[in-house]
Amino acid sequence: MVLKMGLNHEGRDFIVGDIHGEFGLLERSLEGVGFDPERDRLIATGDLINRGPDSPRVMEFLRQPWFFSVQGNHDQMPAMALHALTHRDDEVLRAWHKSGGTWGVDVPASQLRGIAAALANLPVMIEVQTPNGTIGVCHAEPPIGADWLDLRRRLHMGCEHTRRHLTWARERMTALGKREVQEIPHGEWAVRNIDHVFCGHTVIDRWMTLGNLHFIDTGGCFDGGDLTIIEITARGFRERTYQRARHGDPGHYKTVA
Q1: Residue 106: how many CA atoms within 13 Å on its side-chain side?
Q2: Are 158 and 115 within 8 A, CB to CB?
Q3: How far apart are CA 41 and CA 180, in angstroms?
């Protein structure tokens, strides 16, 4: 459930927000940053499928040696749908379709089983060494006041509560929405024993940092939304966003300390 990646001595490392079946947009984004598949690596914040038009292409990317991803809540849905088909659970199937899973209707059952198995085997956390320190990646967010090493230990022990929190929770964003910021001590926003953590899951207008957490799901699968890609091996990080509504947009590059 935890993947550790060493320092990339040959090229650059990038993190991209939730893809949600927008693999064509991802390809244009990688062209924009001059991604070199022979030297560079890409880590996704999960939710590789649903909503976008290219969800069936997910295996094409999962087979690439340069592509890595944590597991998102949407990535768990094909396995749930297959179980629902076996047990004739229409409610689960309707929920998947409502979440953008209608693409699964046109995919042969054998292909869908392969996709479900591959997504089920994705790690819940990724830890990568970079010139900017040790960077963690999860889909949703760690608990407020969490310790990265403790989360890693809990996952190794098979803690389902920890796994679910890291793939489904919106604790910090809920606190912000309810204006409960004052009730959370400043130091509790950060995750201890890790330099930075990148997350997706919650759609926001632009890259947001809380403590040492960076939220980068900027809604690339929605009209007017962006797919955000961060060069995490650049000093201070380097960000580029690509908008789905303007496929010819070269994106904009900026360095964020």
Answers
A1: 7
A2: no
A3: 38
CATH number of 42's domain: 3.60.21.10
Whole-structure pTM value: 0.91
Order of strands across the sheet that contains 2-5? 2-5, 125-130, 133-137, 196-199, 213-215, 208-210
Structure confidence by residue, pLDDT tens digits, 36-65: 999 999 999 999 999 999 999 999 999 999
Domain that holds residue 207: 2-255
Of 34, 37, 1, the C-alpha closest to 250 is: 34
Would you call 74 a catalytic residue per the annotation? yes
Q: By 3-state DSSP, what share of the chain in percent is helix, strand and coil, each rounded to 5?
A: 35, 20, 45
CA torsion 172→175→181→186, rounded to 10°?
A: -20
Q: What pLDDT, in 10s, does the model give residues 132-172? A: 999 999 999 999 999 999 999 999 999 999 999 999 999 88
Backbone angles phi, psi at 199, to 5 degrees: -135, 160
Under 8 Å between Cβ of 45 and 17: yes
The kind and range of the H/E element at 135 are strand 133-137
Amino acid at 52: G
Which of 20, 74, 165, 196 does the annotation list as catalytic?
74
Give the contacts of 116 (CB within 8 A, at least 6 positions apart): 78, 79, 81, 82
Strand partners, 238: 231, 255
Measuring CA to CA, which residue among 70, 197, 217 is closest to residue 132?
197
What's the length of the chain? 257
Please give the tally of structural domains in the chain.
Answer: 1
Q: For residue 69, what are the β-bridge partners?
A: 44
